[in-house]
Design a protein that fits this description.
With 241 residues, the chain is α+β, with helices and mostly antiparallel strands. The protein is built from five helices and 13 strands. Helix content is 22%, strand content 35%. Strands 1-3-2-6-5-4 form a six-stranded mixed beta barrel. The radius of gyration is 38 Å and the shape is flat. The model is unreliable at 224-241 (pLDDT under 50).
Length: 241
C-alpha cells in the first residue's frame, strides 16, 4: 500500500475572513478528531487533492504531519469534505484519526464490469445501478479499493444483489444481502400526446362540418316561413282598420 503524507499546521483563527486568507495561501481549514483528540488544523489543499486521487480515493490512509509535531504518529482518513458547488474548490475537511489495530466503517465503491449483450440486441433495454457503494467494516489495512461486479451475462428482468458480490474474508459487509445492485429492464417508448390547442381546434372544425350550410349567424332566405307569416300579420291589421 502506498504511504501518503499530509502536511498541516495548527489553526487558531476562525470565521470566513480567516478561511479566505488560508485559501489564498494554498491551505484549507480542517478539524481532526478521534482517538481522544480534537484538533483544528490548516491543511495543504494540494497534498489533500493528490492523496484523494490515488486508487484508494476518499478511503486513503494518510500520515498527518503537523508542523512542530512531526514526531507524533497520526494516521487519518477523510470523513467529510466541503466543496464549492460551482468551482469545485475544497473549502473544509473533516479528518478522523484511526488506529491500525481497530476496525473502521467505510463506504467502498462498486464498479460495474462488462457490457450486457442484451443492450445491443433489444431496443429499449437499460442497465440500472441502484447501489454505488457498499458500507463495510474491517481493519484499515484491509479496506478494498473497490468491488468489481460483472454484469455482462445479465438478461432482461434479472438483477445482481449484494449477496452475489465476492467479498474478502477480512471484510464484513453491512448492507442487506438481498439489496439489488444492478438490473436490466426495458423502457417502453413514450407516446407523445397531441397539444391541447391542436385537439381543441380539431374538435371545433369537426363541429363546424356537422352544421347546416349557412347556419352560422346568416338570416333566413326571403320568402321563407318567417317572412310569409310577417306579411299575413300586416295584411290582417289593414283589414281591421
Amino acid at each position: 500500500m502506498e504511504e501518503l503524507f499530509l502536511k498541516a499546521e495548527n489553526r487558531e483563527g476562525r470565521g470566513k475572513g480567516f478561511a479566505r486568507r488560508l485559501r489564498r495561501k494554498g491551505f484549507i481549514p480542517a478539524i481532526m478528531y478521534g482517538e481522544g483528540e480534537l484538533l483544528p488544523l490548516a491543511l495543504d489543499a494540494k497534498e489533500l487533492r493528490q492523496a484523494l486521487r490515488t486508487e484508494a480515493g476518499e478511503n486513503a490512509l494518510m500520515k498527518l504531519q503537523v508542523a512542530g509535531e512531526e514526531s507524533k504518529n497520526r494516521t487519518v482518513m477523510v470523513r467529510e469534505l466541503q466543496m464549492d458547488p460551482i468551482r469545485g474548490d475544497l473549502l473544509h475537511a473533516d479528518l478522523v484519526r484511526i488506529s491500525m489495530e481497530k476496525e473502521v466503517e467505510v463506504e467502498v465503491p462498486i464498479e460495474l464490469i462488462g457490457k450486457p449483450k442484451v443492450l445491443v440486441l433489444v431496443a429499449g433495454a437499460l442497465l440500472s445501478q441502484m447501489v454505488n457503494a457498499l458500507k463495510v467494516r474491517c481493519l484499515p489495512v484491509h479496506i478494498p479499493k473497490s468491488f468489481a461486479v460483472d454484469v455482462e451475462s445479465l438478461e432482461i428482468g434479472e438483477a445482481l444483489h449484494v449477496s452475489d458480490i465476492a467479498i474478502p474474508t477480512e471484510v464484513t459487509v453491512l448492507n442487506e444481502p438481498s439489496e439489488s445492485v444492478a438490473s436490466i429492464s426495458v423502457v417502453a417508448e413514450e407516446v407523445v400526446a397531441a397539444p391541447v390547442e391542436v385537439v381543441a381546434e380539431g374538435q371545433a372544425a369537426a363541429a363546424a362540418g356537422d352544421s347546416p350550410q349557412g347556419g352560422e349567424g346568416k338570416p333566413p332566405p326571403e320568402g321563407g316561413a318567417e317572412g310569409s307569416g310577417g306579411k299575413e300579420a300586416k295584411g290582417g291589421k289593414g283589414k281591421g282598420d
